[in-house]
User: Which sequence fits this backbone?
Protein backbone atom coordinates (compact mmCIF):
# COMPACT_ATOMS: atom_id res chain seq x y z
CA UNK A 1 0.00 0.00 0.00
CA UNK A 2 1.30 3.51 -0.87
CA UNK A 3 0.25 7.03 -0.15
CA UNK A 4 0.94 10.19 -1.98
CA UNK A 5 3.03 12.72 -0.11
CA UNK A 6 3.37 16.47 -0.50
CA UNK A 7 6.57 18.34 -1.19
CA UNK A 8 8.84 18.32 1.83
CA UNK A 9 7.47 14.95 3.03
CA UNK A 10 10.47 13.06 1.82
CA UNK A 11 9.58 12.78 -1.86
CA UNK A 12 12.44 13.16 -4.28
CA UNK A 13 12.55 16.54 -5.87
CA UNK A 14 9.53 17.52 -3.88
CA UNK A 15 7.38 15.66 -6.39
CA UNK A 16 3.97 15.15 -4.80
CA UNK A 17 3.24 12.12 -6.97
CA UNK A 18 6.11 9.99 -5.67
CA UNK A 19 4.75 7.27 -3.32
CA UNK A 20 5.96 7.20 0.24
CA UNK A 21 6.40 3.92 2.16
CA UNK A 22 3.84 3.15 4.85
CA UNK A 23 5.30 2.08 8.17
CA UNK A 24 3.05 -0.12 10.29
CA UNK A 25 3.84 0.13 13.94
CA UNK A 26 4.54 -3.20 15.67
CA UNK A 27 4.40 -4.09 19.30
CA UNK A 28 6.78 -2.42 21.57
CA UNK A 29 9.92 -4.24 22.44
CA UNK A 30 9.45 -6.75 25.19
CA UNK A 31 5.66 -7.16 24.80
CA UNK A 32 3.84 -10.29 23.62
CA UNK A 33 2.18 -10.43 20.27
CA UNK A 34 -1.61 -10.40 20.83
CA UNK A 35 -3.55 -13.42 19.51
CA UNK A 36 -6.17 -12.99 16.90
CA UNK A 37 -9.67 -13.18 18.33
CA UNK A 38 -12.05 -15.61 16.53
CA UNK A 39 -15.32 -14.00 15.65
CA UNK A 40 -17.90 -16.63 14.52
CA UNK A 41 -19.85 -15.81 11.39
CA UNK A 42 -23.24 -14.25 11.85
CA UNK A 43 -24.91 -16.76 9.57
CA UNK A 44 -25.56 -20.54 9.43
CA UNK A 45 -27.27 -22.94 11.93
CA UNK A 46 -26.21 -23.00 15.59
CA UNK A 47 -23.44 -25.41 16.43
CA UNK A 48 -24.35 -28.06 18.99
CA UNK A 49 -21.34 -30.28 18.75
CA UNK A 50 -21.30 -33.91 19.83
CA UNK A 51 -23.96 -33.51 22.57
CA UNK A 52 -26.84 -34.07 20.15
CA UNK A 53 -25.18 -37.21 18.81
CA UNK A 54 -24.77 -38.59 22.33
CA UNK A 55 -28.50 -38.07 22.97
CA UNK A 56 -29.41 -39.95 19.80
CA UNK A 57 -27.10 -42.82 20.72
CA UNK A 58 -28.79 -43.13 24.14
CA UNK A 59 -32.23 -43.16 22.55
CA UNK A 60 -31.17 -45.91 20.17
CA UNK A 61 -29.74 -47.94 23.04
CA UNK A 62 -32.91 -47.57 25.10
CA UNK A 63 -35.12 -48.53 22.14
CA UNK A 64 -32.90 -51.54 21.45
CA UNK A 65 -33.04 -52.64 25.08
CA UNK A 66 -36.83 -52.38 25.16
CA UNK A 67 -37.11 -54.39 21.94
CA UNK A 68 -34.84 -57.10 23.34
CA UNK A 69 -36.90 -57.28 26.55
CA UNK A 70 -40.13 -57.61 24.54
CA UNK A 71 -38.65 -60.41 22.44
CA UNK A 72 -37.41 -62.20 25.57
CA UNK A 73 -40.86 -61.88 27.16
CA UNK A 74 -42.49 -63.37 24.04
CA UNK A 75 -40.04 -66.27 24.03
CA UNK A 76 -40.56 -66.86 27.76
CA UNK A 77 -44.33 -66.87 27.36
CA UNK A 78 -44.09 -69.27 24.41
CA UNK A 79 -42.02 -71.55 26.64
CA UNK A 80 -44.68 -71.34 29.36
CA UNK A 81 -47.36 -72.37 26.89
CA UNK A 82 -45.28 -75.42 25.98
CA UNK A 83 -44.55 -76.61 29.52
CA UNK A 84 -47.97 -76.00 31.08
CA UNK A 85 -50.61 -78.72 30.70
CA UNK A 86 -53.53 -78.71 28.34
CA UNK A 87 -56.80 -77.33 29.70
CA UNK A 88 -58.98 -79.75 27.77
CA UNK A 89 -59.70 -81.55 31.05
CA UNK A 90 -61.07 -78.46 32.84
CA UNK A 91 -64.68 -79.79 32.90
CA UNK A 92 -63.44 -83.11 34.29
CA UNK A 93 -61.49 -81.33 37.03
CA UNK A 94 -64.54 -79.23 37.82
CA UNK A 95 -66.69 -82.33 38.10
CA UNK A 96 -64.14 -84.05 40.35
CA UNK A 97 -64.09 -81.10 42.73
CA UNK A 98 -67.90 -80.90 42.77
CA UNK A 99 -68.15 -84.58 43.67
CA UNK A 100 -65.60 -84.13 46.46
CA UNK A 101 -67.54 -81.16 47.85
CA UNK A 102 -70.99 -82.74 47.38
CA UNK A 103 -72.01 -80.24 44.73
CA UNK A 104 -74.37 -81.14 41.88
CA UNK A 105 -72.54 -81.10 38.55
CA UNK A 106 -73.02 -79.27 36.33
CA UNK A 107 -74.51 -76.31 38.10
CA UNK A 108 -77.17 -74.16 36.45
CA UNK A 109 -76.24 -71.35 34.07
CA UNK A 110 -74.90 -68.35 35.96
CA UNK A 111 -77.69 -65.78 36.43
CA UNK A 112 -77.09 -62.32 35.03
CA UNK A 113 -77.14 -60.49 38.37
CA UNK A 114 -74.42 -62.63 39.88
CA UNK A 115 -72.38 -62.67 36.65
CA UNK A 116 -72.44 -58.88 36.42
CA UNK A 117 -71.59 -58.53 40.12
CA UNK A 118 -68.66 -60.93 39.85
CA UNK A 119 -67.28 -59.32 36.70
CA UNK A 120 -67.66 -55.81 38.11
CA UNK A 121 -65.65 -56.55 41.24
CA UNK A 122 -63.19 -59.22 40.09
CA UNK A 123 -62.46 -58.58 36.41
CA UNK A 124 -64.23 -55.67 34.71
CA UNK A 125 -62.42 -56.38 31.40
CA UNK A 126 -63.60 -60.01 31.37
CA UNK A 127 -65.64 -59.61 28.18
CA UNK A 128 -62.79 -58.07 26.18
CA UNK A 129 -59.50 -59.47 27.53
CA UNK A 130 -57.63 -62.51 26.11
CA UNK A 131 -57.59 -64.41 29.39
CA UNK A 132 -55.24 -61.95 31.07
CA UNK A 133 -55.56 -58.25 31.75
CA UNK A 134 -52.56 -56.75 29.95
CA UNK A 135 -52.89 -53.49 31.89
CA UNK A 136 -52.87 -55.33 35.20
CA UNK A 137 -49.96 -57.53 34.11
CA UNK A 138 -47.91 -54.43 33.27
CA UNK A 139 -48.81 -52.85 36.61
CA UNK A 140 -47.94 -55.99 38.57
CA UNK A 141 -44.69 -56.41 36.61
CA UNK A 142 -43.65 -52.85 37.38
CA UNK A 143 -44.46 -53.33 41.06
CA UNK A 144 -42.47 -56.56 41.15
CA UNK A 145 -39.43 -54.91 39.54
CA UNK A 146 -39.64 -52.13 42.12
CA UNK A 147 -39.40 -54.70 44.89
CA UNK A 148 -43.03 -54.50 46.00
CA UNK A 149 -43.63 -58.22 45.62
CA UNK A 150 -46.52 -60.03 43.97
CA UNK A 151 -49.77 -58.10 43.98
CA UNK A 152 -53.28 -58.49 42.64
CA UNK A 153 -54.48 -58.31 39.08
CA UNK A 154 -55.69 -61.90 38.52
CA UNK A 155 -58.51 -62.24 36.02
CA UNK A 156 -61.42 -64.66 36.37
CA UNK A 157 -59.56 -66.95 33.96
CA UNK A 158 -56.47 -66.87 36.20
CA UNK A 159 -58.56 -67.49 39.29
CA UNK A 160 -60.17 -70.51 37.64
CA UNK A 161 -56.72 -71.82 36.67
CA UNK A 162 -55.66 -71.36 40.29
CA UNK A 163 -58.64 -73.38 41.56
CA UNK A 164 -58.35 -76.18 39.00
CA UNK A 165 -54.63 -76.58 38.30
CA UNK A 166 -52.48 -75.16 41.11
CA UNK A 167 -54.35 -76.39 44.16
CA UNK A 168 -55.66 -72.97 45.08
CA UNK A 169 -52.13 -71.67 45.63
CA UNK A 170 -50.67 -68.48 44.21
CA UNK A 171 -47.71 -67.83 46.48
CA UNK A 172 -44.77 -67.62 44.09
CA UNK A 173 -43.85 -65.96 40.83
CA UNK A 174 -43.49 -69.37 39.16
CA UNK A 175 -47.02 -70.43 40.05
CA UNK A 176 -48.47 -67.10 38.97
CA UNK A 177 -46.63 -67.36 35.65
CA UNK A 178 -48.16 -70.81 35.12
CA UNK A 179 -51.60 -69.43 35.91
CA UNK A 180 -51.12 -66.71 33.29
CA UNK A 181 -50.34 -69.31 30.61
CA UNK A 182 -53.23 -71.53 31.71
CA UNK A 183 -55.59 -68.54 31.67
CA UNK A 184 -54.74 -67.85 28.03
CA UNK A 185 -55.35 -71.50 27.18
CA UNK A 186 -58.73 -71.39 28.96
CA UNK A 187 -59.63 -68.32 26.92
CA UNK A 188 -58.72 -70.11 23.69
CA UNK A 189 -60.65 -73.27 24.62
CA UNK A 190 -63.91 -72.24 26.30
CA UNK A 191 -66.62 -69.63 25.90
CA UNK A 192 -67.15 -67.00 28.57
CA UNK A 193 -70.42 -68.58 29.81
CA UNK A 194 -68.54 -71.89 30.21
CA UNK A 195 -65.76 -70.15 32.15
CA UNK A 196 -68.26 -68.49 34.50
CA UNK A 197 -70.13 -71.75 35.00
CA UNK A 198 -67.00 -73.71 35.92
CA UNK A 199 -65.88 -70.85 38.17
CA UNK A 200 -69.14 -70.71 40.11
CA UNK A 201 -69.27 -74.51 40.38
CA UNK A 202 -65.97 -74.76 42.27
CA UNK A 203 -65.70 -71.41 44.07
CA UNK A 204 -65.81 -71.49 47.88
CA UNK A 205 -68.22 -69.07 49.57
CA UNK A 206 -67.54 -69.85 53.23
CA UNK A 207 -69.79 -71.61 55.75
CA UNK A 208 -68.79 -74.94 54.10
CA UNK A 209 -70.63 -73.90 50.95
CA UNK A 210 -68.92 -74.75 47.64
CA UNK A 211 -70.58 -73.65 44.45
CA UNK A 212 -73.07 -70.89 43.77
CA UNK A 213 -76.15 -73.10 44.26
CA UNK A 214 -75.15 -74.19 47.77
CA UNK A 215 -74.14 -70.64 48.71
CA UNK A 216 -77.40 -69.03 47.54
CA UNK A 217 -79.51 -71.71 49.24
CA UNK A 218 -77.37 -71.70 52.37
CA UNK A 219 -77.23 -67.95 53.01
CA UNK A 220 -80.47 -66.73 51.50
CA UNK A 221 -82.74 -69.76 51.07
CA UNK A 222 -83.21 -69.01 47.36
CA UNK A 223 -81.84 -70.41 44.14
CA UNK A 224 -79.18 -68.40 42.26
CA UNK A 225 -81.65 -67.13 39.65
CA UNK A 226 -83.89 -65.77 42.42
CA UNK A 227 -81.22 -63.67 44.16
CA UNK A 228 -81.79 -59.93 44.41
CA UNK A 229 -79.09 -57.41 43.48
CA UNK A 230 -77.88 -56.99 47.08
CA UNK A 231 -77.74 -60.75 47.59
CA UNK A 232 -75.85 -61.31 44.34
CA UNK A 233 -73.46 -58.46 45.20
CA UNK A 234 -72.82 -59.87 48.67
CA UNK A 235 -71.93 -63.34 47.35
CA UNK A 236 -69.73 -61.92 44.58
CA UNK A 237 -67.88 -59.88 47.19
CA UNK A 238 -67.10 -62.98 49.25
CA UNK A 239 -64.98 -64.94 46.76
CA UNK A 240 -61.71 -63.29 47.84
CA UNK A 241 -62.31 -63.72 51.58
CA UNK A 242 -65.14 -66.20 52.14
CA UNK A 243 -64.37 -66.79 55.81
CA UNK A 244 -63.77 -63.18 56.90
CA UNK A 245 -66.69 -61.84 54.82
CA UNK A 246 -69.27 -64.40 55.94
CA UNK A 247 -72.51 -62.45 56.59
CA UNK A 248 -73.49 -64.83 59.40
CA UNK A 249 -70.27 -64.52 61.40
CA UNK A 250 -68.83 -61.20 60.15
CA UNK A 251 -71.84 -59.09 59.13
CA UNK A 252 -69.92 -55.78 59.10
CA UNK A 253 -67.33 -57.19 56.68
CA UNK A 254 -70.04 -58.70 54.50
CA UNK A 255 -71.90 -55.40 54.38
CA UNK A 256 -68.72 -53.54 53.41
CA UNK A 257 -68.08 -55.97 50.57
CA UNK A 258 -71.68 -55.65 49.40
CA UNK A 259 -71.32 -51.86 49.30
CA UNK A 260 -68.07 -52.19 47.35
CA UNK A 261 -69.62 -54.44 44.72
CA UNK A 262 -72.71 -52.23 44.38
CA UNK A 263 -70.38 -49.29 43.86
CA UNK A 264 -68.54 -51.19 41.14
CA UNK A 265 -71.83 -52.00 39.43
CA UNK A 266 -72.60 -48.28 39.32
CA UNK A 267 -69.10 -47.50 38.04
CA UNK A 268 -69.43 -50.05 35.22
CA UNK A 269 -72.89 -48.81 34.23
CA UNK A 270 -74.85 -51.91 35.29
CA UNK A 271 -76.83 -50.07 37.97
CA UNK A 272 -78.00 -46.50 38.28
CA UNK A 273 -77.29 -44.63 41.48
CA UNK A 274 -81.00 -44.83 42.36
CA UNK A 275 -80.94 -48.62 41.96
CA UNK A 276 -77.80 -48.81 44.06
CA UNK A 277 -79.35 -46.74 46.84
CA UNK A 278 -82.42 -48.99 46.83
CA UNK A 279 -80.25 -52.12 47.04
CA UNK A 280 -78.22 -50.77 49.94
CA UNK A 281 -81.37 -49.74 51.77
CA UNK A 282 -82.25 -53.41 52.34
CA UNK A 283 -80.96 -54.37 55.81
CA UNK A 284 -78.60 -57.30 56.06
CA UNK A 285 -80.92 -59.08 58.47
CA UNK A 286 -83.56 -59.24 55.74
CA UNK A 287 -81.08 -60.58 53.19
CA UNK A 288 -80.11 -63.55 55.39
CA UNK A 289 -83.52 -64.03 57.04
CA UNK A 290 -83.85 -67.52 55.45
CA UNK A 291 -80.26 -68.62 56.12
CA UNK A 292 -79.93 -72.32 56.87
CA UNK A 293 -83.33 -73.27 55.50
CA UNK A 294 -82.04 -74.36 52.13
CA UNK A 295 -83.99 -74.35 48.91
CA UNK A 296 -87.29 -76.15 48.66
CA UNK A 297 -88.17 -78.29 45.66
Assistant:
Amino acid sequence: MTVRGTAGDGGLGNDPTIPLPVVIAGPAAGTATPRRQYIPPAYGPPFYGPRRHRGRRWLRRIAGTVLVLILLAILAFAGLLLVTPSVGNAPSLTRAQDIAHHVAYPGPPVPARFAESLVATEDHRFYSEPGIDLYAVARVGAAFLQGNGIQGGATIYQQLAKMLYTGGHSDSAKIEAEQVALAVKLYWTYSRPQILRMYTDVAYFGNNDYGLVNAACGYFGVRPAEMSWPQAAMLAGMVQGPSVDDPLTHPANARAREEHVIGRLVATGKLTQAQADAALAVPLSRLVARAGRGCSG
Summary: The radius of gyration is 40 Å. The chain has a mean pLDDT of 81.
